[in-house]
Please model this.
Amino acid sequence: MEAAAAKEENQQVLKVLEALKQASHDLHSNPIPKSSDSSNSSAIKALLELQTESNSILSTDPCLSTLSHHLTSLKSIVESLDKSRSRHGLRSFLTRRVTTHEISRVAVSIESEIQAWIDRESIDNLVRALNQSSSSTDDQSLIQMLINFENRVSQGFNRELQDLILKSKIFSILESVLCDANYSKEIREHVAFAIAELIRFNKDVFVGQVLMGQTIQALISMSSPSSLKVLCSLIKSIKSPLVDEIESNGEIINIINLLKSEDLSIPVMAMNCVLEIGYFGRKEAIDAMMKAELIKILVELQRSEMGGDLIEVGKWEEEGVEAAEVVVVRRRESRERRFLEKHPFASCVARFAVQVEVGEGLRQREKRAFKQEILNRVREACVSDAESATIVAEVLWGSSP
Model:
């Protein structure tokens, strides 16, 4: 009963603060009322009404004392502005200008204080929910909290928010849930998305925790389209150091084996991971891919009904003048994108080869050696001279990565 009452009271405070936040945002955007009476401004009126309504609520929470002070200051500033409107002259004009600036400044402070309180409460509630046992967790409620957290972090870097995140040690808690198979797959996938957002939020702070923890192994072992999507995004963000970690943990072969899954969505996402590893991987990682017979698997995928050859897509229908060439190229790229949507493994051998050739992980001599090895493995894997000739031509001349 007490917990339910506390939750209801918390929701009441949150509702009032959200209204205050919106009103203060509106006031900051338009701090100069059009009417002679400042209190008739819709944003100011809303804030003053909410200030009266929220006095009893704010006074019970010490974290909101600063907000209460800002609201009181706003009321005084508005009253001062109204008095100055009854007077004329340069001094009164300057006073109104300064006062209007003060209103805007206080509105920003109010919005900032409210957001800080919301962030603090949201993170505390999420941590409590994540720390519950999987059997007592309300899945939908927790998923909504994770979505809210993900959306907040995705708004960009904020030092106060980062301090709250670090103090709560939420990254470690998220990773623990991600690695716990007792939680539902949906919860773990949303946890994975939250972790990916934390990396985008501040890569310098959270990359080390990814590299030292169990996040990558958990994502690969989940083997779902969502977990592989997060893995792919992490490879793009962290680049070669993450690929090194994947290779040193022997996970390369596990990713490649996902290309054989009967659930089409899984090999499609695994293919994206393979392409990113090809781009950022160093010699050891590409060697591991070759030893896992990646080229043979890619040839088989390209041969399937979901494969095909991009070399035949979007050939230039006309020479045209130089000014028209950009339009022709864009048409070709558009056709390739549409073709790849229906045939995700089209020219997948050449697409991988291009990633290796233009990537960041290898020296030039290593790139040349791997290109030759890819060509040799293509010839071994093909079932006909025609198939071999087509794929070899794509690898030699390049295809859209």
Q: What stands out?
A: Residues 132-238 form one domain.
